[in-house]
What we know:
By secondary structure, the chain is an all-alpha fold. The protein is built from 13 helices and no strands.
Amino acid sequence: MTSSPPKSVNRTLGFLACTAASSLWGCGFYFGKIALAEMNVGHMVFYRFLFASIGLLPLLFTHRPQFTASEWRTLGYAALLGVPLQFLLQFRGLSLTTVSHASLMVGTMPVLLALGAVVFARERLHSVGWIALAASTVGAGLIALGGSRNTAANGPTLLGDGLVVISMFIALFWILINKRLMERHNHLTVTAYGIVLGTAMLAVWVPLTWGTPPLHGVSGKAWAALAASGVLCTATTTLLWNWGMTQVPASQAGVLLNMEPLIGSLLGIYLLGEHLGLLAWVGGALILAAAVTLTTRGPGQQLAEGLLAET
């Protein structure tokens, strides 16, 4: 009896896919800032996920769900946390700060994954990991202190930076819940139906709290930014990252998540003319260094597999 041939793995393409996904995630705040110039936070987030749902629509037909009633409730809870709560809070923070500051704050996610592994998965964090965790916390504080408290100046603010960090905590629970579902179901099924369900929640909540989303009076530039943030920064990134994770180990791919804050901050500086003060540069360096350390050496490597579509 002959054995079946081993599964073909292409590490180079896998790393390229993960790099492209993380880089596209890094563009999310940039596109969001363009759209926010013409509409409020609720409308921008709704359109982002509407375009994302359209992009993921084929998966609803190719990956039929087989969730139990209890799992549907769990998926609904995850969708509530991961879409309306996380993104409305996150982009409210973006509206009060700069793209570069918000992007650097997202760099705390690998650190939060490691913290989640310690608290929820009972993994042990080595001494270097605790130092990295402390460094990331100090870095986030330095970035926040580098912002002003005057929201009228269109510059970074302490409140805006803080809201982005809080949204990362919510994202952590979204990841943990999705990870549990993906132990029994295909990750594409969980992601696609979770995003569509979250979009349906936005379709109910946003008109009630933010008004009817506009169809007229929005420039082509804003529509293009919304489409790009949904199709490229949410749907495409999900597919690229999930496929890349089948080609390379999570412990090696996780470090590529740091492309997101790097790309986002560079876009804010060079395309939007934003300025990072000395404290923000130092804080950003601490966050990125801590993230690299924890994604290559510490716990959180397995939890990184659940980071499928966070921005």
